[in-house]
Amino acid sequence: MGAARFLRGLLAVVPPSSVTAIVNVADDTELHGLHISPDIDTVTYTLADAIDPDRGWGLRDETWHAMTMFERYGNPSWFNLGDKDLATHIVRTERLRAGQPLSEVTAHLARAWDLECTLLPVTDDRLRTFVTTEHGDLSFQEYFVGRQHAVPITAVRFEGAERARPAPGVLDALADADRIVVAPSNPIVSIGPLLAVDGIRDALVEHRSRVVAVSPIIAGAALKGPADRMLTELGHEPSVVGVARLYRDVAATLVIDDADAARAPEVEAEGMACIVTGTVMSDAERAAGLARAVLAATESPR
Amino acid sequence: MGAARFLRGLLAVVPPSSVTAIVNVADDTELHGLHISPDIDTVTYTLADAIDPDRGWGLRDETWHAMTMFERYGNPSWFNLGDKDLATHIVRTERLRAGQPLSEVTAHLARAWDLECTLLPVTDDRLRTFVTTEHGDLSFQEYFVGRQHAVPITAVRFEGAERARPAPGVLDALADADRIVVAPSNPIVSIGPLLAVDGIRDALVEHRSRVVAVSPIIAGAALKGPADRMLTELGHEPSVVGVARLYRDVAATLVIDDADAARAPEVEAEGMACIVTGTVMSDAERAAGLARAVLAATESPR
To answer: Is the pTM higher than 0.80?
Structure first.
């Protein structure tokens, strides 16, 4: 997950306590009666250095014994949940059922992993991504995991967006931030839900000069995942220029990879400043380097 | 668990589909937001030959990775739950939350383990054992697991007993049974809650001639667990005679171990027929032998 890797790089170059991560929850799903928040968990596990580095999700040294039982009991088995990871979902579900908002639960879990930055779900309200395909509407995880994002989509919608309010602290964090970074994530289904929550797009528009986005598209392709295909399927150009068109209203600056240097003038023509640097976070040092470049891209207003 | 071992022996000597096991649920507890039914699970896992033979509870070849996470998250860690076992509690909780009664959930889980006998929780209603100690009232698992049943008790109560109704099928099974066996279990906290559910004691009294109980006390001691101490602490004699006094109203026959042969006349003096045989189920053959002796102890009325 590009956002998590970027965050880890960022925390290496600024005081962690100065960072607030606002995380997508529209990928959340309920399985086995448990509330699963894949994006929050991936960020938490990554920052705790507990993520499985090969899979890019879930915990390192994980076992899968509970899954064999879910199969025995006829429960869905298409979404793998490790034995340790299950405890995270159990504890989250227990606390949500007891009436705690997701933001408090997320803070509790983050503290348990000794995270020093602030982790905020974009909203405590129910927000769910659905994609329209020739097989009908699918929830995000049905599309992403169940069908391994191999089916074309014709539309995306964020169920609950019209009622979702930003979680406590989200708008304050945006208003108070020296810099706001739109992480290198899927613009449609990772960043899109954040912008769909009431007040968040407006906050970015208001603070546009401090907002820098990092293109997840490099030389016309996503490093991982379906972002490039999704862009094409929904009528956007799968390139840094297409990304610029999606972000120009909310961000003053776009960071693009060296591989796309030739297209910087086109990005600028969309009304954004354009920074060209290495954006492939193949190791911790490169992630930190990208974070430094992003921080340098916007002057601190303070 | 004596009842589970006895059941396994019984299923070896009669057609499994002819057997209905009515199981205690007053040991049930909620932990991590999950509904845990230790007695039902021990019976299910034992009959499925999946129980851990050394611990006597939980699944064989179990791992404990989720527990390390519960500790990390500050959740209770005094009640061990294996990774595979957790899936059972997750699935049970999911179905109960969806509105299924415990009896249906239990049947679903039993089918998944290919059990051929019928497993019924004594009630679908909430029924919980509490014991009074010098440390105050403790739930059964707080007493049994949390304090390893090492604290004296002065009273036992079954919360919810006044409202609990027998689960569907329980009274019919008792009315229709050729023979009713009170398994060699703790008379106070394993059999006691069953008898406390409305209509069950009356059904046994009505069918007393077909009821045979097996003493869990051998030569003044329980093979495992605190039954002997509990009897003493609550003013009963920790012997087959004390057991006879507890059961004489609901059972016509008491099966006692060879070690207690000399006390058979005292059992008979309490108004019960007394069968003396080997009751220590140290292996499958001995458990089957006990089952045969129990079946021979009451004539089939049909």
So the answer is: yes
